[in-house]
Amino acid sequence: MKKITIISISVVVLVLIVLQLLRPKFAENAYLKGKLLLDSSLYSEAIAKFDKAIWLKSKPLYFSSRGLAKIGLIKDSEAVIDFSKAIEMNPSVSEYFLNRGVSYRKLKEFDKSLADINKAIELDNSNAKAFYNRGLLKASQGQFDEAVKDYNRSIELDGSNIEAFYSRGESRSHLNDFMGAISDYDKMIEGSNANADAYKKRGIFKFNIQDFAGAEKDLLLASEKEKNDKEIFFYLGQSKSNQNKYDEAIEYLNKAIKIDGKYSEAYSVKGGAFLKKGDFTNAIKEFNKAIDINSNFLKAYYGRGIAKALMQDYRGSLVDFTRVIEIDKNFAQAYYNRAVSKAILEDHKGALADYDFIISKDPKYAEAYYNRGVSRMNTKDEKGACEDFKKSLALGYKPAEKMVNMYCGTPSIK
Fold first, then answer.
1. Whole-angstrom Cα distance, residue 357 to residue 336?
2. Domain, as residue range, for 67
3. Which 3-state string (H, E, C) describes 114-154?
4. What is the Cα–Cα distance from 186 to 407, expressed in whole angstroms?
């Protein structure tokens, strides 16, 4: 019996020794299986394999990989713990700091995120992903100039990362560099990323540089790929309207409104299309709808004021232009149009105050001088009126010449 017992113990010891020797191999096999699952976005299954690998052999790469799988499951708080363990075991790997920095950014711990990404760059200044992610971090904090610099560096290091072009285009658009944004989206669309969002964004950028035909082309392509995006139809409507295609503009704006019945901007632009068509009654109806939704909608009040003035409802236009000025005290064109309405209603003193404001804001506004001259003449200020008519003529407003000849003697253009 003793002999058998001794032999049994020896076998167990031998098995344990063999198992101990094979643990690294078993761990690596579990890790590689986990890596395949991670690459296939099967995050929970990947974590199970990484758990096994870590149980068999504690390695920083295993912890980091498990952290990536947890990011995939939007468990960034847990991912930070794994990345921290990897860093503790090997603080010389750039990728570990970068991964933790990404999780900190998603957790809105921006200072920690920046510290980690800076460390990743310090350890490897050729890490294109680190520069890209620092760009994302800076953009999320409104530092678009700095973000563009980081995207530039990332693209220099790795021009195959299409997301870097997308993100740089977004930041450039915030800096009103629409030409630069368009060039980045051109790069995206050349590849396999010609999706609805890419065409939509490029179309909006083209709209912002007043390339309305180019905007229309891109937005139509976007609308073929995405049928339920109100912004696509909204910008299509604006692009059509700016090309004097008012009926088509109204058609697309109706599509935007069908998607969102509370889309006040679409009602306002639709009102503008009717206004440009000369259909003032329908224009006012659309502006009314926009204002019902948003009682502080400056453009809708202004458009409605113009429509009322063109329908010779000058008192109604005064109300709307006054409301515009209440919303924005520096909206010079509202003062101008209010002054015109006041003058037509023979409130020349009231008109003069508005013209004074406009001219103080824009001393080269020739028509404002001319109209102020008319109101001055109506308040018996002939000297002041002549000064304004002459100034208007000097600024190139030809109708002022008749007034100068009639009331002020020989005109002198300086």
1. 9
2. 1-105
3. HHHHHHHHHHCCCCHHHHHHHHHHHHHCCCHHHHHHHHHHH
4. 60
CA distance 286 to 264: 9
In a domain, 42, yes or no: yes
Cα 301 to Cα 291, 334, 343, 385: the distances in Å are: 7, 10, 20, 31
Surface-to-core class of residue 209, CB atoms within 10 Å of its CB (0-12 exposed, 13-18 middle, 19+ buried): middle
128: number of Cβ within 10 Å: 18
**Is 221 inside any structural domain?**
no
- For the chain, the domain total comes to 1
Q: What are phi and psi of 379, to 5 degrees?
A: -105, 20
How many of the other CB atoms lie within 10 Å of CB of 259?
16
Q: How far apart, in whole angstroms, are the C-alpha atoms of residue 202 and residue 244?
A: 22
Contacts of 51 (CB under 8 A, 6+ apart): 66
For residue 414, what pLDDT band results from cuts at 50, 70 and 90? very low
Residue 337 lies in a domain: no
Yes or no: say if 53 and 28 are a contact pair by the CB < 8 Å rule: yes
Distance CA 51, CA 58 (A): 10
Contact criterion met (CB below 8 Å) for 368 and 362? yes
pLDDT tens for 358-374 read 999 999 999 999 999 99
Asked whether residue 334 is assigned to any structural domain, the reply reads no
Provide the pLDDT for residue 19: 53
Min mean pLDDT across 61-75, 281-295, 396-410 is at 396-410
Whether residue 293 contacts residue 264, with contact meaning beta carbons closer than 8 Å, is answered with yes
Residues 165 and 143: their CA atoms lie apart, in Å, by: 17
CATH of the domain at 62: 1.25.40.10
- Model pTM? 0.79
Query: For residues 358 and 364, what is the distance between their CA atoms, to the nearest angstrom?
Result: 10
Tokens matching residue 407: 């009331």
Helix/strand/coil for 34: helix
Answer yes or no: are the C-beta atoms of 104 and 113 closer than 8 Å: yes
